[in-house]
Amino acid sequence: MQKTSAKVCVVSLGCPKNLVDSEVMLGILKEAGAELTTDEALADVIVVNTCGFIGDAKEESIDAILALAERKKTGSCRRLIVAGCLTQRYKEELAESLPEVDCFIGTGEYHRIAEAIREDFRERVLVGLPTYIHDYTTPRIVSTPGRYAYVKVAEGCSNLCSYCSIPAIRGGFRSRSIESVVREAESLAWQGIREINLIAQDTTSFGKDRGAGLEELLGELIPIKGIEWIRLLYLYPGRVSDGLISIMEGEEKVLSYIDLPLQHISPPVLKAMNRQYTRAEVEALIGKLRSRLPELTLRTSIITGFPGETDRDFEELLDFIEAVQFDRLGVFMYSREEGTPANGFRKQVHAGVKAGRMDALMSAQREISLRKNRELVGKAIKVLVEEGPGEGQALKGRASSQAPDVDGAVYVKAAHSSPGEIISAIVTGAEDYDLHAEGAGATSATPS
Ligand code: SF4
Questions:
Q1: Is the CB of residue 235 below 6 angstroms from any atom belonging to ligand 1?
Q2: Is 7-126 in CATH node 3.40.1400.10?
Q3: Can you give the pTM of this predicted structure?
Q4: What CATH number should be reported for the domain whose range is 380-444?
């Protein structure tokens, strides 16, 4: 690969899976000799890694592209590259409507970024059927703050939920090898990462295309020195195995944190969404998790306003959320996406009704979250310190029950603790989502 001396800024939008792709692009660019900058104003080349999943995200991506394109008129930017899901989904429309963009890269070609930034690179649209997935030999620069990182264990999805454009954007489900994930985790530990978050569209399906699954992978990740917390995100409700629960029961490193995107609970809606589980199965699973994992943190995400969702369906959902009392809840309004089966469904729900239902769920959850946080006052928690003393000398960190980016934080008064340390703290105060605490002393020092 010919070296480059370009100054490159990578702007990453969307989900943690897209962020990992951006970090791989940073690694490949660095290896190709590029100078990396986070300041768009200084960049010769700007790469924006877009999200194209739902309406709001698409708008945000388009706004970002147009704003960055201004840099070509006013700033030092001479080349603008648009990568990611929006490109994969709308390559023709984008190529026609955005002449200021020099190259469009699909979700299966981001490993060719070092070629695409070159002035003499002639291909303007580099989009094919996404089959690529990086491995441990692929350079990657971790961009997440603090001492955590995402580890993408698989790409694509074959579940075909009726509202979802991901299978069309990211391709069919494909896992990395266990060796590849383990070697990457070892390299992250060596870089001082203490927490790894295993991610995929459906993490529970890891290895089904390779014969060895999540339990085998965890068996190899647990012994890695330096990695203290292993968190699993995006577990498909119908596929949480007893073996996985046993590992969480027996291994402190594998956090009792279950992220279970249910999307809904009313049977006709689950059926129309093509979600492969029933209310009874979900309730049985939650019962089992709560009886076997006393420290369990249970997260879910819900879609309101799916076509055909009646007031009764929604009442059932709200009752379910109030009955189960999830520790963490994310709510999204259904977004009508062309190319998905649900786009053609009758009884599309009015935007105002969708928003009202989302607000009702979020205000119910705010009360649940505050009550649960208040119950923690006086209790000991483990906190990964992420930022040094800020306002009022409090350190900022996350409890093991708080996932990065989506859950709250803990503000800890603790002398002599620094980022990367996992400390014990006593909760002294509670807010809707955040906690306040006082340090009870370090439980494990930053590895030397
Ligand atoms: S599991 Fe369903 S919602 Fe999630 S990425 Fe796959 S198809 Fe989309």
A1: no
A2: no
A3: 0.95
A4: 2.40.50.140
